[in-house]
Amino acid sequence: MIAPQAAVAAPLVTHLPSIPYVRPATPADDTFVEELHAIAFGPGRFARTAFRVRERFPIDESLSLIAEVDGVPCGAVWMTPVSVGGVNGYLLGPLATDPGFRKRGAGKLLAREVTAHALARGEGQFVLLIGDQDYYCPLGWQPTVKGAIGFPGPVDYDRVLVFTHDETLATTLAGPIAAFR
Ligand SMILES: CC(C)(COP(=O)(O)OP(=O)(O)OC[C@H]1O[C@@H](n2cnc3c(N)ncnc32)[C@H](O)[C@@H]1OP(=O)(O)O)[C@@H](O)C(=O)NCCC(=O)NCCS
To answer: Which residues of the chain have pLDDT under 50?
Structure first.
């Protein structure tokens, strides 16, 4: 008698999503970034207060980063050098990840990397942004003093957050946003 063949189990295939990494942006990324901003922020993006800051003070293109997964661009971040009360720093943003690549760590990686790159230059002491505390505070951003920093438009001060290695700056940073000196 021939023994019945044991059922052969199908090979177990585990497909883990690839991990994002970052690289400097180049002019070839301009179309991707423009389309990403349109998807992430919509037509209202041009009226945002952070956009008005970037209209007055140019971004530092050498700090623009792109996140990629397997060679496919999936996120971007910009930095605008500014000063507040005579202290030089940066305004982070826009930060956006393509909806098809979210929750893989690209957004936090971009925020952390661009901040580390900028502060490592030793020319600025803080990285300011307008964003959700739940997202940024676990990464080291802290609330600022409500009303202390003057923006060229309306802003929810609960969302004005700062990252700094100076232990006192979150409570002392005050004044209108001005040019990086
Ligand atoms: C916010 C954004 C950049 C996050 O990008 P991402 O690549 O998905 O971010 P990460 O993968 O690093 O982090 C995802 C985690 O943050 C959480 N998260 C996303 N947005 C959040 C927010 N506004 N507040 C709190 N948590 C948030 C997600 O739920 C997820 O949680 P999980 O890890 O427990 O699943 C992306 O959702 C986006 O582009 N949004 C539209 C533009 C925008 O709002 N930009 C930020 C302006 S300050």
So the answer is: 1
The reported pLDDT for the residue numbered 6 is 54
Residue 118 buriedness (CB in 10 A; 0-12 / 13-18 / 19+): buried
Which tokens go with 60?
């530092």
Q: Is 54 exposed, middle or buried (0-12, 13-18, 19+ CB in 10 A)?
A: middle
- Assigned token pair, 131: 């964003």
pLDDT at 128: 98
**129 exposure class (CB count in 10 Å sphere: 0-12, 13-18, 19+):** buried
Q: Are strands 65-69 and 87-97 parallel, antiparallel or unpaired?
A: unpaired
User: How many Cβ atoms are within 10 Å of 41's Cβ, its own excluded?
Assistant: 16
The predicted structure's pLDDT at residue 3: 52
Domain boundaries, the chain: 21-179
The residue whose CB lies within 8 Å of the most ligand 1 atoms, and thus the one to mutate among 39, 79, 102, 129, is: 102
Helix (H, G, I), strand (E, B) or coil at 179: strand
Paired tokens of 158? 């609960």
Strand bridging mode 149-150 / 175-179: parallel
CB of 92 shorter than 6 A to ligand 1: no
CATH for the 21-179 domain, from 3.40.50.11540, 3.40.1280.10, 3.40.630.30, 1.10.3660.10: 3.40.630.30
